[in-house]
Write a structure and sequence with these properties.
This protein is of the alpha+beta class and about 725 residues long. The protein has 24 helices and 31 strands. It has a five-stranded antiparallel beta sheet with strand order 9-8-20-19-18, sandwiched between helices. Strands 25-31-30-27-28 form a five-stranded mixed beta sheet, with no helix packed on it. Its EC number is 2.4.99.28. GO terms for molecular function: carboxypeptidase activity; penicillin binding; peptidoglycan glycosyltransferase activity; serine-type peptidase activity.
Amino acid sequence: MIAACAQPACANTTFDQIKRDFRPSDTLVLDRDGEIIQRVRLDASVRRGQWVALADISPALRTALVLSEDKRFYEHSGVDWRAVSSAAWGNLWNTKTRGASTLSMQLAGLLDADLRAGAQGRSLGQKIGQTVSSQLLEARWRKDQILEAYLNLVPFRGELVGIDALSRTLFGKAAHGLDEREAAVASALVRAPNAKAAQVAQRACAVMKLMQPGAKIDCDGLDLFATGALQRRAFEASEGIAPHLARRLLVHKPGNQTIYSTLRAPLQRFAVQTLAQHLRELRGRHIEDGAAVVLDNASGEVLAWVGSSGMLSAAAEVDGVLALRQPGSTLKPFLYAQAIAERRITAASLLEDSSSQIQTAGGLYIPQNYDRQFKGLVSSRTALGASLNVPAVRTLVMVSPDAFARQLRAVGLPLKESGDYYGYSLALGSAEVSLLSLTNAYRTLANGGRFSEVRFGAGAAVRFLPALDPRAAFITADILADPLARARTFGTDSILATRFWTAVKTGTSKDMRDNWALGYSSRYTVGVWVGNASGAPMWDVSGTSGAAPVWAALMKQLHQTEPSRAPTPPPGVVQTRAEFGNQLEAARSEWFIRGTEQAFFAIDSGSAGALPSSAKGLKSLKTPALQAAAQPRITAPASGTIIALDPDIPPAHQRLAFSAEGQSLRWLMDGKVFAKGNTAQWLPWPGRHVVRIVGKHGEVLDEVRLEVRGAGVKAAQAGPMGKR
């Protein structure tokens, strides 16, 4: 019931009261500027749209309604006595005539439940009450108010009530856009809401003749049009560009007819389109889902929220912004920041990227880089920028899993278990987090280590809490923004390199089930996830081909006209020149927490000799005489090695290092020569392979067997040397 009032109280109800008490069956979610971004139906028993002002209703419909229902609407004062007389005369002689009910009388029946017709029509008492009420309405309401209220309250067909629901359902447009043909069909439904299509068309044809006297009306065409329109159901339960955020807002503000959000409608549309377009390009790689969120760094306001890929997804209702997933390497920045804050390492400290066995309560934990290839000694800057796994685990050993878990909770990542539960795999993202909380954690880095909750609408002032040492947050941001730090893995011209200042990190979970790109500029933080809602693994998706292109597109869109500059160094950090022994890395100007600065970084020869000879970047300490005396053999990798290609690294940048002892060696891969000397580099492709070294006369000196798994250079695309 829209409104109920007993006679004569119904007539005393004002137009403003009726309009104020009107309740649509749906809620409108608006962006920050008042643009509609989502409509969500809440009342399943009726389909009632928004209240539409008379000025926003098609003039054709207003004309059609008056001509068909109440020709002297603007002349009478509630009762058309001429029509009453004509109807009475017709009843006397049993002649079919038009009814005498005016629009004002019909509105009185809509407003007063006691005046509504029953199965046998209205009783004499109801007709008298309707007559009195309509005259009282006319005395207190203007004609335009009566017509506006009538069009918003009249039942049209089935569950459709009001012109907004009718026009959007049957014609797929707003009420102001109805043409004469559509207006004729709508007016025909007032008289017979549930009539068959042929009867509606016949009635609509008669209305058209009233609207266009003397014109030739194509009634057959109108019949086809009416039949098609009555079969349409375009007024979906929910429609718009932000269904998942709308659902979340409705939980916090149930029953509201209109809800304002913090979203920017143009940015939301761009994010939806960009994500869908990119996922279409990746459909051949077994990937159909994705999500994206954009936050304002200063306020924490959500500017874009894309929960799924929509029609591309088999699970479009699942909100990828809130779903819990393994974040992979995207947790590493918080680990290094904590270690820097605790003065355990600096950005220039040397970390060993080599085979390691860590004793745990459950046995040995043996971290590996995905390609089983170790880089030897690298700085913390390179280890984080290039996303090396083993140095991250070594750093977590220094920090401890439990302390790292506390740090993650401080930046807004609500881990379900303790750090000891996850163990050292926590450095590689074994815990589950949501895209929203992870993006806000990166926003904490963007804000110099200060955390605040995200915001969806107007609320209290932003309240920041210290969550991370601001000096460590600054140094971490500087690393994530450094294209040279990630060049060893991603190259210098990857999709992650923007023309303006940004700090970014990618991540991929175990078995390539989740791919992430998280990063921030001076003004915004953007998070993107791609994968499958079902948890199925993707095929051949790297850190730069999965989520990163969407992240880069969003950042570019955000900064079309806005600059982004590097953050100002906070008090307590200094920049000084750092050099590295054995040419491990090029000398550079490096940031330090004051008191931890150091000019030279190296290890002694004893430590270097203890490293495996396969450690890339270190020269062998063995003399030529010792090499000649040794039995020729392959020293790395070991036979039986299984190589899982790193999904975060572009395939062209992944090469497996081989080393051997002996002289005048040639390397054979599956029977074909691919290198000479004591070391070799090979671009792997999936499959089982046999690697041999042979002497100058072709004699086989040693061999190893290995297997390559995961996404990489496909055999069909690669020759014997592994080149594309």
